[in-house]
Every structure is written in structure tokens, then in C-alpha cells.
Amino acid sequence: MKIHKQRGYTLVEMVVVLAIVGLLAALTVAIFNLQKVNNFNKQSEELVSALRKAQSQAATGENNDEYGISFSSGSYTTYRIDTATATQTSIATTTVSGTTISTSITPSASQVTFLRVSGQTKNATSATITMTLNGTSRTKVIIVNAAGQIYVQ
């Protein structure tokens, strides 16, 4: 009598392998989403830091220079204004990936400029800067009031 060896996998083995693959896929998606959120939080912290740095530079700047930040939907640019010649010079542009920046600045403008010595905003500007993580409802709202106070909601 011949003995036939059975080849293949049992149903239980297949189900266990599929469960493990599904678990690994779920963990991968969760880690990817967490990384996106962490990157978003870092970008908003960097914007707040850039605003505070511009304000600090204005308060301690030479020759009555003013400093500020201008905004577009996917980036922001720090700049210096030489008040003697009214020349604005870009210092650095930062692009935010996976994030949209929208602003509501009063009076109507696309930038926030800080005054020398006081650190207050020029022309009593107040700004609400909203950063939105693309594809989600996650937002960070950064407020700059006319007194120059900067905070995150």
C-alpha cells in the first residue's frame, strides 16, 4: 500500500497567516497616520517659533528695522524691512508639506509685521492663521493680536 503525502496548508494555518498580515497592515496604517500628525504638529510649532523670532528680531533689531512673516497657502516667508529705505528683504521661505495655511488678517493683508522696540504689530494688525492637515479636519489656529501676543488655540 502506498502512502500519499498531503501537500498544502490547512484552513486554520491560512486563517492565522491572514490574521497576522491584517494586524501588520493595521499597525502600518496607524503608524503612518501618527507620523503625519506629528509632522503637522511640528510644522505648526515651527511657524509659532518663526513668528516669535521675527518679533524678537524687531524688538532688538538695528536701524529701526521691522521684521515679519508673509503667508501663502503652502508656505510662509520671513522678511526684514529697512525702515530708512522702505526696502523689504526676504530672509527665509518655509514650505509646509501636507498642510494648508489660511489667514484672516485685519486690516486686510497677507503678512504680519512687528515694530521695532515694542514688538507690537504694525498698523494694529491682528491675525488668525489656520493650519489644516490636508485630507483631515485637524487644524491648529495661531493668533497674533495687535499687542503682539502670539498664542495657539
Task: Explain what this protein looks like in three dimensions.
The chain is an alpha+beta fold and 153 residues long. The protein is 33% helix and 35% strand. The protein is built from one helix and eight strands, in the order H-E-E-E-E-E-E-E-E. The protein has a four-stranded antiparallel beta sheet with strand order 3-2-1-5, with helices on one face. The protein has a four-stranded antiparallel beta sheet with strand order 4-6-7-8, with helices on one face. It is rod-shaped. The model has no long low-confidence stretch (mean pLDDT 90).
Structural class call reads alpha+beta
| Helix percent band | 25-40%
Order of helices and strands: HEEEEEEEE
Placed side by side, the strands forming the largest sheet appear as 3-2-1-5
Shape: rod-shaped
* Biggest sheet architecture: 4 strands, antiparallel
Strand content bin: 25-35%
How many alpha or pi helices?
A: 1
Distance between the termini: 80 Å
Q: Which radius of gyration do the C-alpha atoms yield?
A: 26 Å
Mean pLDDT: 90
